[in-house]
Design a protein that fits this description.
This protein is α/β, with parallel strands linked by helices. It has helices spanning about 15-30, 80-95, 105-115, 125-130, 135-145, 160-175, 195-210, 215-225, 230-235, 235-245, 250-280, 290-300, and strands at about 5-10, 30-35, 55, 60, 65, 100-105, 185-190, 285.
Protein backbone atom coordinates (compact mmCIF):
# COMPACT_ATOMS: atom_id res chain seq x y z
CA UNK A 1 0.00 0.00 0.00
CA UNK A 2 1.38 3.40 -0.90
CA UNK A 3 2.62 5.67 1.89
CA UNK A 4 1.95 3.25 4.77
CA UNK A 5 4.61 1.35 6.72
CA UNK A 6 2.06 -0.87 8.45
CA UNK A 7 -1.62 -1.36 9.24
CA UNK A 8 -2.77 -1.20 12.86
CA UNK A 9 -5.91 -2.94 14.09
CA UNK A 10 -6.88 -1.95 17.62
CA UNK A 11 -9.88 -2.27 19.89
CA UNK A 12 -10.99 -3.17 23.40
CA UNK A 13 -11.18 -6.73 24.69
CA UNK A 14 -13.93 -8.84 23.04
CA UNK A 15 -14.26 -6.42 20.10
CA UNK A 16 -13.22 -8.96 17.45
CA UNK A 17 -9.93 -7.23 16.61
CA UNK A 18 -7.95 -10.46 16.25
CA UNK A 19 -10.36 -11.94 13.71
CA UNK A 20 -10.39 -8.63 11.87
CA UNK A 21 -6.58 -8.44 11.78
CA UNK A 22 -6.35 -12.05 10.61
CA UNK A 23 -8.85 -11.38 7.80
CA UNK A 24 -6.82 -8.33 6.75
CA UNK A 25 -3.55 -10.29 6.88
CA UNK A 26 -5.12 -13.08 4.81
CA UNK A 27 -6.35 -10.58 2.22
CA UNK A 28 -2.92 -8.92 1.97
CA UNK A 29 -0.90 -12.16 2.31
CA UNK A 30 1.04 -10.76 5.23
CA UNK A 31 1.88 -11.35 8.91
CA UNK A 32 0.59 -10.10 12.27
CA UNK A 33 2.60 -8.46 15.04
CA UNK A 34 0.80 -8.66 18.38
CA UNK A 35 0.50 -5.65 20.70
CA UNK A 36 -0.73 -7.35 23.87
CA UNK A 37 1.12 -7.01 27.16
CA UNK A 38 0.08 -10.45 28.44
CA UNK A 39 0.01 -12.63 25.32
CA UNK A 40 3.81 -12.54 25.31
CA UNK A 41 3.80 -15.18 28.08
CA UNK A 42 3.98 -18.90 27.37
CA UNK A 43 1.41 -21.04 29.17
CA UNK A 44 -0.93 -18.08 29.68
CA UNK A 45 -3.35 -18.83 26.87
CA UNK A 46 -6.99 -18.89 27.97
CA UNK A 47 -6.54 -16.05 30.46
CA UNK A 48 -4.97 -13.76 27.88
CA UNK A 49 -7.39 -14.67 25.09
CA UNK A 50 -4.81 -15.74 22.53
CA UNK A 51 -7.47 -17.46 20.39
CA UNK A 52 -4.71 -19.02 18.29
CA UNK A 53 -7.22 -21.03 16.25
CA UNK A 54 -8.41 -17.71 14.79
CA UNK A 55 -5.07 -17.35 13.00
CA UNK A 56 -6.08 -20.01 10.46
CA UNK A 57 -8.23 -18.90 7.50
CA UNK A 58 -9.42 -21.36 4.84
CA UNK A 59 -6.76 -23.80 5.96
CA UNK A 60 -3.99 -21.19 5.77
CA UNK A 61 -2.00 -20.36 8.91
CA UNK A 62 -1.40 -16.62 9.25
CA UNK A 63 2.09 -16.07 10.74
CA UNK A 64 2.16 -14.08 13.98
CA UNK A 65 4.86 -12.48 16.10
CA UNK A 66 5.32 -11.52 19.79
CA UNK A 67 3.01 -14.19 21.20
CA UNK A 68 4.53 -16.84 23.51
CA UNK A 69 7.97 -15.24 23.59
CA UNK A 70 8.79 -15.14 27.32
CA UNK A 71 8.22 -17.09 30.52
CA UNK A 72 5.55 -16.35 33.16
CA UNK A 73 7.07 -14.62 36.17
CA UNK A 74 9.09 -12.23 34.00
CA UNK A 75 7.85 -8.63 34.04
CA UNK A 76 7.91 -7.85 30.34
CA UNK A 77 7.85 -4.11 29.64
CA UNK A 78 7.50 -1.53 26.89
CA UNK A 79 11.29 -1.20 26.59
CA UNK A 80 11.49 -4.88 25.60
CA UNK A 81 8.37 -4.60 23.46
CA UNK A 82 9.84 -1.85 21.29
CA UNK A 83 12.99 -3.91 20.73
CA UNK A 84 11.00 -7.05 19.88
CA UNK A 85 8.52 -5.14 17.71
CA UNK A 86 11.33 -3.66 15.63
CA UNK A 87 12.87 -7.10 15.05
CA UNK A 88 9.49 -8.53 14.00
CA UNK A 89 8.66 -5.49 11.87
CA UNK A 90 11.96 -5.65 10.00
CA UNK A 91 11.62 -9.40 9.38
CA UNK A 92 8.17 -8.92 7.82
CA UNK A 93 9.29 -5.92 5.73
CA UNK A 94 12.30 -7.87 4.44
CA UNK A 95 9.81 -10.29 2.86
CA UNK A 96 8.24 -7.38 0.99
CA UNK A 97 5.07 -7.53 3.08
CA UNK A 98 3.04 -4.87 4.92
CA UNK A 99 2.88 -5.84 8.63
CA UNK A 100 -0.41 -5.80 10.54
CA UNK A 101 -0.06 -4.63 14.14
CA UNK A 102 -2.92 -5.94 16.27
CA UNK A 103 -3.76 -5.52 19.94
CA UNK A 104 -5.45 -3.75 22.78
CA UNK A 105 -2.47 -2.56 24.83
CA UNK A 106 -2.63 1.12 23.98
CA UNK A 107 0.75 1.96 25.43
CA UNK A 108 2.51 -0.63 23.28
CA UNK A 109 0.74 0.58 20.14
CA UNK A 110 1.38 4.23 20.88
CA UNK A 111 5.03 3.63 21.80
CA UNK A 112 5.81 2.30 18.31
CA UNK A 113 3.52 4.60 16.32
CA UNK A 114 4.84 7.69 18.11
CA UNK A 115 8.41 6.62 17.52
CA UNK A 116 9.77 6.99 21.05
CA UNK A 117 12.73 4.94 22.13
CA UNK A 118 12.21 4.46 25.84
CA UNK A 119 14.89 3.60 28.37
CA UNK A 120 14.80 0.84 30.96
CA UNK A 121 13.68 2.47 34.22
CA UNK A 122 15.46 1.34 37.41
CA UNK A 123 13.59 0.61 40.63
CA UNK A 124 13.25 3.47 43.13
CA UNK A 125 13.18 1.98 46.67
CA UNK A 126 12.53 5.37 48.33
CA UNK A 127 9.50 6.05 46.11
CA UNK A 128 8.20 2.50 46.62
CA UNK A 129 8.43 2.95 50.37
CA UNK A 130 6.50 6.23 50.15
CA UNK A 131 3.74 4.66 48.08
CA UNK A 132 3.36 1.48 50.10
CA UNK A 133 0.08 1.40 51.98
CA UNK A 134 -1.79 3.48 49.41
CA UNK A 135 -4.88 2.01 47.75
CA UNK A 136 -5.16 1.24 44.04
CA UNK A 137 -7.62 4.13 43.68
CA UNK A 138 -5.20 6.59 45.33
CA UNK A 139 -2.33 5.38 43.14
CA UNK A 140 -4.42 5.62 39.96
CA UNK A 141 -5.32 9.24 40.78
CA UNK A 142 -1.61 9.99 41.32
CA UNK A 143 -0.70 8.34 38.01
CA UNK A 144 -3.16 10.47 36.05
CA UNK A 145 -1.24 13.61 37.09
CA UNK A 146 1.81 12.53 35.12
CA UNK A 147 2.24 13.25 31.44
CA UNK A 148 3.51 9.80 30.57
CA UNK A 149 3.33 7.04 28.01
CA UNK A 150 3.03 4.40 30.71
CA UNK A 151 0.01 2.19 30.30
CA UNK A 152 -2.65 3.08 32.86
CA UNK A 153 -5.07 0.79 31.01
CA UNK A 154 -3.23 -2.24 32.39
CA UNK A 155 -2.83 -0.92 35.93
CA UNK A 156 -5.25 -3.05 37.92
CA UNK A 157 -3.09 -4.07 40.89
CA UNK A 158 -1.26 -1.99 43.50
CA UNK A 159 2.14 -3.37 42.40
CA UNK A 160 1.57 -2.42 38.77
CA UNK A 161 0.33 1.03 39.77
CA UNK A 162 3.44 1.63 41.88
CA UNK A 163 5.64 0.52 38.98
CA UNK A 164 3.73 2.83 36.63
CA UNK A 165 4.30 5.80 38.97
CA UNK A 166 7.96 4.82 39.28
CA UNK A 167 8.31 4.96 35.49
CA UNK A 168 6.30 8.19 35.23
CA UNK A 169 8.43 9.83 37.94
CA UNK A 170 11.62 8.78 36.16
CA UNK A 171 10.48 10.33 32.89
CA UNK A 172 9.35 13.48 34.69
CA UNK A 173 12.80 14.04 36.20
CA UNK A 174 15.12 12.65 33.51
CA UNK A 175 15.66 13.90 29.98
CA UNK A 176 13.80 11.16 28.15
CA UNK A 177 12.28 9.56 26.16
CA UNK A 178 14.73 10.08 23.33
CA UNK A 179 13.52 10.09 19.74
CA UNK A 180 15.52 7.18 18.33
CA UNK A 181 12.74 4.93 17.08
CA UNK A 182 12.11 5.02 13.31
CA UNK A 183 9.02 7.06 12.37
CA UNK A 184 6.27 4.77 11.11
CA UNK A 185 3.20 5.80 9.16
CA UNK A 186 0.25 3.54 9.87
CA UNK A 187 -3.29 3.18 8.65
CA UNK A 188 -5.09 2.74 11.99
CA UNK A 189 -8.31 0.73 12.07
CA UNK A 190 -10.39 0.56 15.26
CA UNK A 191 -13.09 -2.02 16.00
CA UNK A 192 -16.19 -0.10 17.00
CA UNK A 193 -18.46 -2.17 19.23
CA UNK A 194 -21.33 -0.65 21.20
CA UNK A 195 -21.17 -0.85 24.98
CA UNK A 196 -24.00 -3.35 25.45
CA UNK A 197 -22.69 -5.73 22.77
CA UNK A 198 -19.24 -5.52 24.30
CA UNK A 199 -20.60 -6.33 27.76
CA UNK A 200 -22.51 -9.35 26.42
CA UNK A 201 -19.44 -10.64 24.58
CA UNK A 202 -17.20 -10.18 27.62
CA UNK A 203 -19.62 -12.13 29.82
CA UNK A 204 -20.09 -14.91 27.25
CA UNK A 205 -16.36 -15.19 26.67
CA UNK A 206 -15.62 -15.35 30.39
CA UNK A 207 -18.09 -18.26 30.76
CA UNK A 208 -16.52 -19.99 27.75
CA UNK A 209 -12.96 -19.69 29.02
CA UNK A 210 -13.87 -20.95 32.46
CA UNK A 211 -15.62 -23.92 30.81
CA UNK A 212 -12.54 -24.55 28.66
CA UNK A 213 -10.30 -24.86 31.71
CA UNK A 214 -8.98 -21.41 32.60
CA UNK A 215 -8.92 -22.35 36.30
CA UNK A 216 -6.76 -25.39 35.51
CA UNK A 217 -4.44 -23.18 33.46
CA UNK A 218 -3.78 -21.02 36.53
CA UNK A 219 -3.37 -24.11 38.75
CA UNK A 220 -0.78 -25.45 36.30
CA UNK A 221 1.16 -22.17 36.39
CA UNK A 222 1.17 -22.28 40.19
CA UNK A 223 2.25 -25.94 40.26
CA UNK A 224 5.06 -25.07 37.84
CA UNK A 225 6.53 -22.76 40.46
CA UNK A 226 5.07 -19.39 39.51
CA UNK A 227 4.42 -17.55 42.78
CA UNK A 228 0.85 -16.39 43.53
CA UNK A 229 1.99 -12.76 43.79
CA UNK A 230 3.60 -13.02 40.34
CA UNK A 231 0.33 -14.17 38.79
CA UNK A 232 -1.64 -11.54 40.71
CA UNK A 233 0.72 -8.95 39.18
CA UNK A 234 -0.64 -9.80 35.71
CA UNK A 235 -4.12 -8.76 36.83
CA UNK A 236 -7.61 -9.67 35.62
CA UNK A 237 -8.08 -13.44 35.12
CA UNK A 238 -4.76 -14.36 36.74
CA UNK A 239 -5.33 -12.13 39.73
CA UNK A 240 -8.84 -13.28 40.59
CA UNK A 241 -8.37 -16.97 39.77
CA UNK A 242 -5.21 -17.03 41.90
CA UNK A 243 -7.13 -15.44 44.78
CA UNK A 244 -9.82 -18.12 44.34
CA UNK A 245 -7.37 -21.03 44.11
CA UNK A 246 -5.46 -19.84 47.19
CA UNK A 247 -8.70 -19.64 49.17
CA UNK A 248 -8.97 -15.86 49.44
CA UNK A 249 -12.18 -15.66 47.38
CA UNK A 250 -15.14 -17.97 46.88
CA UNK A 251 -15.91 -19.02 43.31
CA UNK A 252 -18.85 -16.60 43.15
CA UNK A 253 -16.77 -13.73 44.55
CA UNK A 254 -14.03 -14.51 42.02
CA UNK A 255 -16.46 -14.60 39.10
CA UNK A 256 -18.37 -11.45 40.08
CA UNK A 257 -15.23 -9.39 40.77
CA UNK A 258 -13.47 -10.65 37.63
CA UNK A 259 -16.42 -9.84 35.38
CA UNK A 260 -16.60 -6.29 36.76
CA UNK A 261 -12.81 -5.88 36.37
CA UNK A 262 -12.88 -6.96 32.70
CA UNK A 263 -15.70 -4.51 31.93
CA UNK A 264 -13.70 -1.74 33.63
CA UNK A 265 -10.59 -2.76 31.70
CA UNK A 266 -12.41 -2.53 28.35
CA UNK A 267 -13.66 0.92 29.30
CA UNK A 268 -10.09 2.04 30.12
CA UNK A 269 -8.89 0.69 26.79
CA UNK A 270 -11.46 2.81 24.95
CA UNK A 271 -10.44 5.83 27.03
CA UNK A 272 -6.84 5.29 25.90
CA UNK A 273 -7.82 5.06 22.22
CA UNK A 274 -9.93 8.23 22.46
CA UNK A 275 -6.90 9.86 24.05
CA UNK A 276 -4.80 8.82 21.05
CA UNK A 277 -7.32 10.56 18.79
CA UNK A 278 -7.03 13.74 20.85
CA UNK A 279 -3.25 13.56 20.34
CA UNK A 280 -3.71 13.54 16.58
CA UNK A 281 -3.86 9.84 15.68
CA UNK A 282 -6.51 9.21 13.01
CA UNK A 283 -8.42 6.03 13.87
CA UNK A 284 -10.85 4.72 11.24
CA UNK A 285 -13.60 3.01 13.23
CA UNK A 286 -15.25 0.02 11.54
CA UNK A 287 -17.83 -2.58 12.57
CA UNK A 288 -16.12 -5.70 11.23
CA UNK A 289 -13.44 -7.21 9.01
CA UNK A 290 -15.48 -6.63 5.86
CA UNK A 291 -15.57 -2.87 6.52
CA UNK A 292 -11.85 -2.90 7.34
CA UNK A 293 -10.98 -4.60 4.05
CA UNK A 294 -13.17 -2.14 2.11
CA UNK A 295 -11.33 0.74 3.81
CA UNK A 296 -7.96 -0.76 2.86
CA UNK A 297 -9.08 -1.27 -0.75
CA UNK A 298 -10.16 2.36 -0.88
CA UNK A 299 -6.76 3.48 0.46
CA UNK A 300 -4.99 1.32 -2.13
CA UNK A 301 -6.92 2.74 -5.09
Amino acid sequence: MPDYDLITVLGPTASGKTRCAVAVAYELDTEIISADSRQVYRGMTLGTGKDLKDYTVNGKQIPYHLIDITEPGHKYNVFEYQRDFLNAYNSVKEKGKLPVLCGGTGMYIESVLKGYKLVLVPENPELRSRLSGKSLEELTIMLRKYKTLHNSTDVDTVKRAIRAIEIAEYYATDDCPRREFPPLKSLIIGLDIDRESRRRKITARLHQRLDEGMTDEVKTLLSNGIKPEELIYYGLEYKYLTLYITGQLTYKEMYDQLEIAIHQFAKRQMTWFRGMERKGFVIHWVKDAEEAIKLIEKERS
